[in-house]
Design goal:
The complex is a heterodimer of chains A (212) and B (579). Chain A has 212 residues and is mainly beta. Helices cover 7% and strands 22% of the residues of chain A. About 19% of the residues of chain A have low confidence. Chain B is mainly β. Classes of the chains: A mainly beta (212), B mainly beta (579).
Chain lengths: 212, 579
């Protein structure tokens, strides 16, 4: 089917030099605003189909985080599992009592990355945990999983339309058609565990009600 | 202008504007709707557009000739209608006796007065909030009796009352959470609604399935990858068949004489062929199905062990032709994503013979093809492999992607919306499949232009009876990513370029006779129809999906196109302005 940009089970790392011709950050957002206005006319989306309420519940304060994929899929992520400067790790929230994954909705997929705490934007620091930041992994453009990582630019990249998000700027859009930043997931450290500190900040996925 | 009184009742006209944009409210309804029958589908009236390509043979040809090479210069917009939806508007506006049915991205269907553009009703399917929107589009609604059929991107097949816009039944086909979705216009044959599933990039196992038009009950399902014990299963290694791709996402063609439906099948998954060794039937093939039972009665594989993401999903056109002065025969003609123009031969029992294949764009993946069978000999230097950086031409989007070619019953030429001069650099890598996540087996971000190339898109005309190109029109600074219409007026219509133009060409010479800049880029399918003695041309303008992905790629090349092509769907309808 259609060519799409990189994706990897361990989050793709895109080589230096890829993505030349980057547009001005948010250049298309002038249009996005118009489109969003038009889309007000459409109906709200249904909830996810066949949704298990327990598994689909959004991340809660106190949740653990577990590997989404790979050899350690489902295992709890420790702070030391995250390398300074990336690549990011894709995660599911985990109920701390039952140890059940909240994997009933794609909207619960989380991107985790450890960065230099001093490099983070001021408004990002309150929801970071010693440089570890978390974001929704669902692209705000077309809801693909933001599975790419451009190592030399230190930005997330969506494989579907190449939208890029800078995790040091609270996942602000720095290239591509995505209309807005990835919602942040506040984190905290407690007794050596990496925990969710609160709900996502902002709407997950496409900005328009109901996608159509 | 007396159409409204004749065909459409605006029962609640005063509240129309308020209600049409609310939840699926019925603003008005179609009276004296003309049921779509077997006879009408097999012999459609010249003034209507009842099938994806107007006729079961897939020609995309309208015999209407009121608009012709002499007067097309006077073609003007008659009405427009904003859909209120962004992304790729790919569907043909379907027309039945003065009523137009338009499918848009995100599961909407509009019923419009085809003469005036006035809305009659709007149907909105509610998509689940967490849907992976890899291809937010629809390629149209199918018709049978007084129903319409929508294959939605959350993998539901929905029947809609054509008169009222009311949902009649809604059948879950597969599970969208596993990367299974639908974008195609269904094919209806004798009350059976056939669909295929997308998801070749998610490691699905493709299929064609049929549903009862009255009830939505599934009647049969045929997988495009044979299971254990079925013929062709031995072309797969181990369990590769379970996740081998072979999606089906473009409407099939149908031969009523032989009662055989032909469906194109998509790429093998993941992309690098060394990860699924074998011929991998029936990926990148055409399969011949008995629509009554779903039984596969024949096939032809265009290329084995697909490694280039070259879906061959565009179903072959059925053309009665001769070749190099020989006896006439019933041909299957397919300008392939692999860059070859394939001409095959129908056999009465469904088997498919090979006639010829020749490249219509620069292609370096095949060294040669077997003169008897058509099987390509592949050049390993240009075949993507795990751990090896490989270049190949044409690109992942191929010589012609899904946008449909057209065959004129007047000029007997085939019009191909081709893309040339764009190649690909790809290195395969091993990835574990995670259900519901993309599974490509490669990083695909490296389309390359051939040195000195000033264009990608080419509208090509071919004489299939000689295998020779008649003319070509290049589009400087652009791809060509839209379906083609040919008409009895010796015209060829196509959009597809990043300058937002809709153009008419002289079908015999390729000369541009008319063009109109539209609101957005066009990746839709033009149609011709007639109401009250006037011929109209209709097209949806609404850029997105893969036309935009190519645009993003071209922006990174020496062509340096502006990636910012405006989005937003509008239905445009044109007619000749009388002097």
């Amino acid at each position: 089917m259609p060519p799409i940009a990189p994706r990897s089970s361990q989050l793709s790392t895109i080589p230096a030099g890829a993505g030349k011709g980057d547009a001005t950050p948010n250049r298309r957002c002038v249009l996005c605003g118009g489109a969003a206005l038009a889309m007000v006319l459409v109906s709200p989306a249904a909830r996810a189909e066949d949704e298990d309420p327990a598994r689909a519940k959004r991340p809660q304060a106190g949740d653990l985080l577990a590997f989404f994929e790979g050899d350690r899929a489902g295992k709890i992520i420790k702070p030391d599992d995250l390398k300074l400067g990336g690549p990011p790790v894709l995660a599911w929230p985990m109920d701390p009592s039952s140890k059940a994954l909240r994997d009933g909705s794609r909207f619960n997929q989380v991107l985790l990355i450890r960065l230099d705490p001093n490099a983070l934007e001021a408004n990002e620091k309150p929801h970071a945990a010693e440089g570890i930041v978390g974001f929704s992994a669902i692209c705000t453009h077309a809801q693909c999983t933001v599975a790419g990582w451009v190592q030399d630019k230190q930005v997330f990249q969506c494989p579907c339309h190449q939208s890029r998000y800078d995790p040091k700027q609270d996942a602000r859009v720095v290239f591509g058609p995505a209309p807005r930043a990835l919602p942040a997931l506040p984190l905290k450290l407690d007794g050596g565990n990496l925990l969710v500190a609160g709900p996502f900040i902002g709407r997950i996925g496409m900005a328009r009600p109901g996608m159509g | 202008m007396g159409f409204i009184g004749k065909g459409v009742k605006f029962a609640f006209a005063a509240s129309l504007l308020g209600s049409v944009f609310a939840a699926p409210a019925i603003a008005a309804e179609v009276t004296n709707y003309a049921p779509v029958t077997k006879q009408r589908l097999e012999n459609p009236e010249p003034g209507n557009w009842l099938l994806y390509r107007r006729t079961y043979d897939g020609h995309g040809f309208s015999p209407l000739k009121q608009i012709n090479t002499t007067n097309v210069k006077n073609l003007v917009p008659v009405w427009t209608f904003s859909t209120g939806v962004i992304e790729g508007h790919e569907a043909p506006p379907m027309v039945n006796n003065g009523v137009m049915f338009v499918a848009t991205p995100y599961g909407q269907v509009l019923a419009l007065n085809a003469k005036t553009g006035d809305p009659i009703w709007r149907y909105k399917h509610q998509l689940p909030e967490d849907l992976f929107q890899l291809h937010p589009t629809s390629r149209g609604v199918a018709m049978w009796q007084d129903k319409l059929f929508l294959a939605a991107t959350d993998d539901h097949l929905i029947a809609i009352d054509a008169k009222t816009g009311k949902e009649l039944w809604n059948t879950k086909v597969q599970d969208y959470k596993k990367g299974q979705y639908m974008t195609l216009e269904p094919l209806v044959v004798n009350g059976k609604v056939m669909v295929g599933g997308s998801g070749g990039e998610f490691g699905v196992r493709g299929y064609v399935a049929a549903f009862d038009a009255d009830t939505g009950k599934e009647l049969w399902r045929t997988y495009t990858i044979p299971g254990p014990g079925e013929p062709g299963h031995d072309t797969w290694r181990g369990d590769d068949w379970k996740t081998g791709g072979g999606s089906v996402w473009i409407t099939g063609t149908y031969d009523p004489k032989r009662n055989i439906a032909y469906w194109g099948v998509g790429n093998a998954a993941p992309w690098p062929g060394d990860q699924h060794p074998g011929d991998n039937l029936y990926t990148s093939s055409v399969i011949a199905l008995d629509p009554d039972t779903g039984k596969i009665v024949g096939y032809h594989q265009y290329h084995q062990n697909d490694s280039w993401d070259w879906d061959e999903i565009d179903s072959p056109m059925l053309i009665n032709m001769s070749y190099n002065g020989g006896q006439p025969f019933d041909a299957l003609v397919h300008p392939g994503r692999d860059g070859y123009l394939w001409v095959l031969k129908q056999m009465d029992e469904g088997q498919i013979g090979f006639v010829y294949g020749k490249p219509f764009v620069g292609q370096n993946a095949f060294k040669s093809i077997d003169a008897k069978t058509g099987r390509p000999t592949v050049d390993p230097e240009h075949k993507p492999t795990t751990g090896k950086d490989v270049s190949f031409c044409p690109s992942l989007w191929g010589g012609k992607d899904w946008p449909a070619a057209s065959y004129s019953n007047e000029t007997h030429l085939l019009y191909i919306p081709a893309n040339n001069n764009m190649c690909e650099q790809l290195e395969g890598k091993k990835e574990k499949l995670v259900v519901g996540q993309l599974w490509l087996g490669a990083d695909a971000d490296n389309a390359k232009l051939l040195p000195g190339a000033d264009h990608i898109g080419e509208l090509q005309a071919w004489d299939v009876s000689t295998g020779k190109q008649a003319w070509v029109h290049p589009f400087t600074g652009s791809q060509l990513f839209a379906s083609v219409l040919s008409t009895g007026g010796d015209l060829v219509f196509v959009g597809g370029t990043n300058d937002r133009m809709f153009r008419a060409f002289d079908a015999k010479t390729g000369k541009v006779l008319w063009e109109q800049k539209t609101n957005s880029g066009i990746m839709g399918m033009p149609v011709a129809y007639e109401v009250d003695g006037t011929e109209y041309i209709a097209i949806q303008s609404g850029w997105g999906v893969d036309a935009q992905r190519i645009q993003d790629m071209l922006a990174k090349t020496s062509m340096k196109v502006d990636p910012d092509v405006p989005q937003g769907g509008v239905v445009w309808v044109f007619a000749v302005k009388h002097e």
